[in-house]
Protein 1
Amino acid sequence: MKLSHEIVTLRTKHPFVIARGGSSEYRVVRVTLTAPDGATGWGEAAPSRYYGETADTVVNVLPLLAQKLDGTDGWSLEALEHGLARAIRFNGSARAAVSAALHDLMGKRLGVPVHKLWGLDPAAAPPSSFTVGIAPDEPTLRARVEEAAQYPVLKIKLGSTWDERIVRMVRELAPDKVLRVDANAAWTPKSALRMIPLLQELGVEFVEQPLPPDDLDGLRFVRERSALPIIADESCLVAADIPKLAGVVDGINIKLAKCGGLREALRMIATARAHDMLVMAGCMIESSLGITAAAAFSPQGRSAAIHGAAAGSQAT
Ligand SMILES: [Mg+2]
């Protein structure tokens, strides 16, 4: 099994800014697996510095991952993904790229898309949301919301110096759209509880990651006082994180770059459902190749959406 790669720079139409900063350029790593029979599988790593990865760290660990595939025929996905996780503990996006390529390879060999291998109906996938990053001023925010006219669901990034004005403006500009907000860990319990009644009044559907990832007591405190569901993103990387979040938040955001592979994503869905939690799928800044791997399990999402799509739309 041969593993090759290419670094691709994605340029977003606008700087994509969230509570902890932003950029207009994002380097992803596209990988191609070539089996001895000539079949190929594709995947993409969308590394995030927040989780300790860059395109360079992805490229550095790919040889280690390739070693785990040496001499295999690529069919034993469960064992192979487990082997990748044992080879390197972190580096989730690098492992996810290889996992996606293995699944793509299997689908291509069998002549069916991955969602069909899993028995999923694409029509059951929830509608995706378009993310509106933190704008520097009101005219820019207005322009961004107007540009998103074709998207029925907006996810608004908060954790800025003007959060209240942002949500009020977006609601004025998009009176009929489903709105969600994501504070990317920037609030305190006090500021979250100050914002949530306003968000409820404006018809916001849920609040993603209001507090720092390790503040589970704070998240529980906020959730117990919140009329809106609270979703964990930065607090929830893999399935093993979920049991301790039961009763602390209402749902989780799954991202391949965090969990490290499609098998782990399926385990996260099963674990969250066992705890009666909402499941949404998110992404980093990635191309249509990266998000396609997540789209394969998106019909399993419950009451929330898969975020982003091609370069130019965004999540995190
Ligand atoms: Mg998020």
Protein 2
Amino acid sequence: MKYIRKTNEPEVLANFKAQANEDWQPSYELLRGKDKQQFHHHLISEQGHICCYCGERIVSSDSHIEHFQPQTDYPHLELDYFNLLASCQQKIQPKEPRHCGMGKGDWFHSELLVSPLIADCEDFFEYAADGQILPSRELEKVAVATETIERLSLNINKLKALRTGLIDSIYNDSELELPLSADEIDKLIHYYSRTDEDGKYQPYCQVFLYLLEQERVDRKYV
Ligand SMILES: [Zn+2]
């Protein structure tokens, strides 16, 4: 999970809501066509083109607008910009496992779900070299992180395999000389902490950042 810094409500959503009058009330269901596409794209861009929960690369056609607090129980938040995120998965293929927003469904718990909008959300999770995501070992974070991983299905084989594949591509298949030097680790941390010239984070950047920080500590580079 990567922290998402929300700014101001984008015009497209503000304008849509501003059309409200005595005879017409805006609702999420009525947000359609170009307005919806534009807003969806805005969410993807502000997240650096990665899923709000797992960090997978997303585009409009393979992601959906996610209600962090579900519409079923929180209808007053259905068009609240700060409740709307972009999550991976749109049309689920037969036998494709659900995860992230599609896995969570209508579930929500204010104390047991880590929000990507809180500044320290990244500290709730740890990552293992075998692709697993684990709850932080900090006592006050264990319960909420464990429940979040479970509800979002972040440890299913599909996501573990994707993370392992990317970890391997860096540590085993790349030109990097191992073990990594302190300079190389700093360079990689710099690279994965930022968006590229197109405003995109690298997929699963948080996993690498965690592993690189661990390596820096293990090798006593700090
Ligand atoms: Zn995801």
